[in-house]
Design brief:
about 85% helix, Bax_inhibitor_1-related, 9 helices, Membrane protein, transmembrane, transmembrane helix, membrane, about 230 residues, mainly alpha
């Protein structure tokens, strides 16, 4: 008969706190990598010409981003923690290359303003996700359907170019990513205990947690930029 091990509450809280700190550290470093690469690319005419002057290069980078996210999420249990970290930062850097486009479309002042609005919204929803006693698991199906709807509507609108659909996608996207921020923040507390006592598993879990929050932040930022961004 298996013996179940019970850990003191203080030990569980300490493990969760350490894990959450790791997740947000990785996420912050990922965002910093994206920002640095994006600013460097936007300030280099040669990089701009190479990436945005060639559809093959641009869409190749997009496919590479999607491939990295899918591979990292699907194969995390088979990867070494160091490999997962490398893939996360590679994704952050490639995302910085493609996001340089926002510096060509919007003023830097409005980008900065939107970033701080995003950071405040993200921080508030993260705190809610960590602090609330309500189980947000029930949000999962609603948010997943909303996310799929936003993606599909965005693809359809590439062909229709409808301003009405554009704004519906924008507001729906903001709601979805605000909700996902709170949901993923709460799930991180659960993930912390899944790697309890296994340092390698904890490191890999922290990378996946950072990737989820990174994606929430970036997508929320892009949706809010549609509202608050001022065109060049």
């Amino acid at each position: 008969m298996d013996r179940q091990i019970y850990y003191p509450k203080e030990r569980i809280v300490a493990v969760q706190s350490d894990f959450i700190l790791r997740v947000y550290n990785w996420m912050g470093l990922g965002l910093a990598t994206t920002a640095v690469v994006s600013l460097f690319t936007a300030s280099s005419p040669a990089m701009i010409s190479m990436i945005f002057g060639s559809p093959v290069v641009f869409f190749g980078l997009i496919v590479g981003e999607l491939g990295l996210v899918i591979a990292l999420s699907a194969a995390i249990n088979r990867l070494r923690a160091s490999t997962a970290v490398m893939m996360f930062f590679l994704y952050s850097a490639i995302n910085g290359l493609t996001l340089a486009a926002i510096f060509l479309a919007y003023t830097r002042a409005s980008i900065s303003t939107t970033f701080f609005i995003t950071a405040g919204t993200f921080g508030a929803m993260s705190l809610y996700g960590h602090a609330t006693r309500k189980d947000l698991t029930s949000w999962s199906s609603f948010l997943t359907m909303g996310l799929i709807g936003v993606v599909l509507a965005s693809l359809v609108n590439i062909f229709f170019q409808s301003e009405a659909i554009y704004w519906v996608i924008t507001y729906a996207g903001i709601i979805v990513f605000v909700g996902l921020t709170a949901y993923d923040a709460q799930q991180i507390k659960v993930m912390a205990l899944q790697g309890f006592g296994d340092e390698e598993a904890a490191r890999k879990g922290a990378v996946i947690g950072a990737l989820r929050l990174y994606l929430d932040f970036i997508n929320l930022f892009l949706m809010l930029l549609r509202l608050f961004g001022r065109r060049e």
